[in-house]
Design brief:
Length: 138
Amino acid sequence: MSVDDRPLASFRVSMRDIDIYGHVHNSRYLDYCEDAVVEFLRQRQILSHFRHTSSGVAYHVKKAEIIFHSPIDLDDVVEAKVDVEKIGRTSLSFAIELFRQRDGAHCASAHFVWVCVGLSDSRPTPIPEVTRAALSPG
């Protein structure tokens, strides 16, 4: 497994995440994906770029989309991978993939779009160059 193929984050599914049908409730996938993106930023040591108190800007979720492929159950270990899909002038797009560790099943594909906004007016503003550079490959 190459470094790029390794999961970014993994976690075990808790009872609180399970619906009446015995698998993870659909809304919890958003939490899992958001946690994976935060871990991605933490591992790149750029989480401070996304704190309004240290960056001077904020990021709002503009879009969150999930495609469900296979259910996740109680006590499953879920592995997540995150990629930056696109860096626009004022927005960032992330691709998140969730896999079941026990059999490698691809459980969900998600796409998030975050918009960079000014603190005083919450209007879209350009992503700071330092953040853009930190997220760019290479």
